[in-house]
Amino acid sequence: MPKPSTGPKPIPYMAAIPTTAGSGSECTAAAVVTNTEGRHTKMTIMDAHLLPSMAVVDPMIMIDLPPALTSATGLDALTHSVEAYIAREANDYTNGLALGSIRLIFKYLPRAVANGRDLEARERMAYAQTMAGLAFNSAGLGLVHAMSHPLSATYDIPHGAANALLLPWVMDFNLISSMEKMADIAVTAGESIAGLSDRAAAALAPKAVRQLTDDLGVMANITDAAAARGRTADFKADIDGLVQDAVNDVFRPFNPRNSNAEDIRGIYARCWSSNTLELIEKLKNHG
Question: Above 90 in pLDDT, residue 119?
Answer without folding.
Answer: yes
